[in-house]
Amino acid sequence: MSQRLIELLLEALWETLAMVGVSAVLAALIGVPLGILLLVTQPGHILARPTFNRVVGTLVNATRSTPFIILMVAIIPLTRALVGTSIGTAAATVPLVIAAAPFIARLVEASLREVDPGLIEAAQAMGASPLQIVTKVLVPEALPGIAAGLTITVVSLIGYSAMAGAVGGGGLGDLGIRYGYQRFQGEVMVAVVVVLIVLVQLIQSLGDAAARRLNKRDRSQANG
Amino acid sequence: MIVIDDLEKDFGVPSGPNPVLRGISLTIEKGEVFGIIGRSGAGKSTLVRCINLLERPTRGRITVAGRDLSGLAGPALRAARHDIGMVFQHFNLLSSRTVQGNVSLPLELVDMPRGERLRRVDEMLDLVGLTDKRDAYPAQLSGGQKQRVGIARALASRPSVLLCDEATSALDPETTKSILALLAEINRTLNLTIVLITHEMQVVREIADRVAVLDQGLVVEQGRVFDVFTQPTHPVTRSLVREVLNLELPERVRSRLRHSPQTSPGLVMRITFTGPSANEPIVSEIVRRFGVSFNILHGHIDYIQNAPYGTLTVEAGGSEAGLQAALDFLRVKSLKVEILGRVAAPDRAVA
């Protein structure tokens, strides 16, 4: 493997990590609160706002049903307004965040829904406010599930980030397409895929370990 | 003191009304253990959940310690709830928090400073005997230990009322006894009012002072536990009492009763002893004074709140005059005597 190839790979890996890392953090900052809102504003829940819930739910579904490649192109004006350009790694994070946030929101909502309603009731009986129920009961109890959801999101973001190459986003996917596909350098394609496999494995293992550590429900692991 | 005044709860749906509580009025005194018993679906869980407004009453008023809760909402309601502890059938502990963290939760809700909070948690864990489990997670505890954590958590904010919603129904008999003993002790030492919802008469007998029997959303009977046990009037109460006080005659005796002519010499009767008379040697006195022989068919002595309550089913033999004198004597002693029938020949096998 040539020195040049290694440099290219490292640079692309860095771009991918930056793109995925930044968009994952931003998407989580939007998606987690959104997921909480989606749950607690449901009819009969602690902050029931049925109309609000329906509107937000519809928006989330609409974003999630738009294919990423179309979303990316469709929001170019927004991207330009936010980062000043529609080309490059920074520009690619905007569509990545917009695609990942609703995804995280639904996963968070599903994890929170798994929390035993009896715990909410117990907290209400103690005189907890809705905000206290969210921060002291719902989120801590759902944390293993939320960690698993974020892991899935990061892995999906790696896949999406390859498409961001289409707007000059750079990264591993872009490298594979430009060198491996367009210039017929098969070994670059193979190297890119191997790096991606290792990366995904690593992230999944880290995520699983975190979820296990947070889960105190299983007697054998409660000491962890 | 808790006053429930003409409480109604209707889980009405668009298709029609669905009344669960239909006009309940109860007064629960400060410092007493009050049992609310009923079959599943009688509305007892809804009733206890109305006391801290987890369920909002459709009509009627709930007053706890002089404060009318029924109109409260938001911060005022939450403040009132700090004064009412609640213990649940399935414990409802946070799996993500240790024992200490769980007991600390109600104190965090009112922003109690950390030092004071930890002291209070230690005090509560000491009270329920779980100091050594402070850093364990609920998953590592037995059912009884979990309920002790539940009780410690409910008491952490020093409430004046403790609501127990089937608190022992998920526990085995042995553990149930120890949890009830703990509740009784807390009631004594803290002068805490305890409202206990259960479907088990055993639980009521063990620790309640007074009891209300709930059936189809109505209080069908209420009073001191001893009285309700010994003189149940409503069919539901009778059947609940029968489960713990075994008053049924054995089949062997019943079949002989049915087949014997009314003129047979053996007289079968059930004598009920309550209160002080249960301690007197009445049977031996009758045998001595009236020359009547007793063949004991079935007997049972129970202690309800430390007062003895016994029934004795006997087959009495002797002269008509002797039997009559014996019956009169029992009535003078104001014991309850029921004549169940006559049997052909005394069955010596059981004597």
Question: Would you mind describing this structure in some detail?
Answer:
The complex is a heterodimer of chains A (224) and B (351). By secondary structure, chain A is mainly alpha-helical. Chain A contains nine helices and no strands. Chain A has helices at residues 3-40, 50-65, 68-74, 76-83, 89-113, 117-125, 130-163, 172-182, 186-214. In chain A, helix 1 crosses helix 5 (89-113), helix 7 packs antiparallel against helix 9 (186-214) and helix 8 packs antiparallel against helix 9. Chain B is α/β, with parallel strands linked by helices and 351 residues long. Chain B has two domains: 2-244, 3-Layer(aba) Sandwich (Rossmann fold), CATH 3.40.50.300; 251-350, 2-Layer Sandwich (Alpha-Beta Plaits). Helix content of chain B is 36%, strand content 29%. In chain B, the strands form three sheets. A six-stranded mixed sheet of chain B has the order 6-7-8-3-9-10, with helices on both faces. In chain B, strands 2-1-4-5 form a four-stranded antiparallel sheet, with helices on one face. In chain B, strands 12-13-11-14 form a four-stranded antiparallel sheet, sandwiched between helices. In chain B, helix 3 crosses helix 4 and helix 3 (99-109) packs parallel to helix 5 (143-155). The radius of gyration of chain B is 25 Å and the shape is elongated. Chain B starts with a strand and ends in an 8-residue tail after the last strand. Classes of the chains: A mainly alpha (224), B alpha/beta (351). The A-B interface holds A 116, 118-119, 121-129, 132, 136-137, 140-141, 143, 214, 216-219, 222 and B 52, 54, 75, 77-82, 84, 86, 88, 90, 92-97, 105-106, 108-110, 136-140, 153, 157, 163. Chain B: Part of the ABC transporter FtsEX involved in cellular division. Important for assembly or stability of the septal ring.
